[in-house]
Design a protein that fits this description.
A three-stranded antiparallel beta sheet has the order 1-2-3. A hairpin with a 6-residue loop joins strand 2 and strand 3. The chain contains six helices and three strands; from the N terminus they run αααααβββα. The protein starts with a helix and ends with a helix. With 186 residues, it is of the alpha+beta class. Helix content is 49%, strand content 16%. It has two domains: 113 residues, no CATH class; 66 residues, no CATH class. This is COMM domain-containing protein 9 isoform X3.
Length: 186
């Protein structure tokens, strides 16, 4: 499938300037989560001198793939040009390589800001609560110590919660059920 998409890259040669191609790449990056709106599509069609936008989608898919590979796979600057097959015009390869190199660091920084990191479990203890009282059912008191490795000074978080006996029984039954199902597979 990738090979057939490359045939749409020459549409970029129709752009009047390097800045137009730069605008297209920046627009694709900014709208990576939402997609281009009708105004952006119309503007890009005008930049590329397209009568209809039917040729636009395959080009945009190809460009998004290139952007994704450069940013998410952290392709080195020297290897960006190796992404293109021989059938892509050398001047187009140079232009796209130059622009992708120009924005790669900035775009990678943006994705790192967007990433959510979860703290890791450092320690877990539990004990039974309400053992002395006959009026309330016993509960398991779970203590978790979590560590967030992404903070500059590594931050620890203590989390404490209680599970009622019936909740704990349900969890254990579920775990035994899953264990039994897994052992039946093997």
């Amino acid at each position: 499938m990738e090979r057939t998409l490359w045939g749409h890259l020459p549409l970029l040669v129709r752009a009047n300037s390097k800045e137009s191609v730069e605008y297209i790449l920046q627009s694709l990056w900014k709208t990576r989560k939402t997609g281009l709106d009708a105004d952006d599509r119309r503007l890009i069609c005008e930049m590329l001198q397209l009568q209809t936008d039917s040729d636009l989608d395959p080009l945009l898919v190809c460009l998004r793939m290139l952007i994704r590979r450069c940013v998410y796979e952290n392709i080195s600057k020297d290897d960006i040009q190796k992404l293109f097959p021989n059938e892509v015009l050398p001047e187009l390869q140079r232009l796209l390589t130059l622009l992708l190199q120009k924005f790669q660091r900035e775009w990678r920084a943006e994705i790192h800001k967007d990433e959510v990191s979860f703290p890791r479990l450092k320690a877990m203890t539990w004990n039974m609560g309400n053992q002395d009282s006959e009026l309330t059912e016993p509960v398991a008191v779970i203590n978790l110590k979590l560590q967030n490795d992404t903070q500059a000074p590594q931050e620890e978080l203590d989390l404490k919660f209680q599970l009622a006996k019936e909740t704990l029984d349900t969890m254990l039954k579920s775990m035994y059920c899953i264990r039994d199902q897994l052992s039946n597979l093997g």
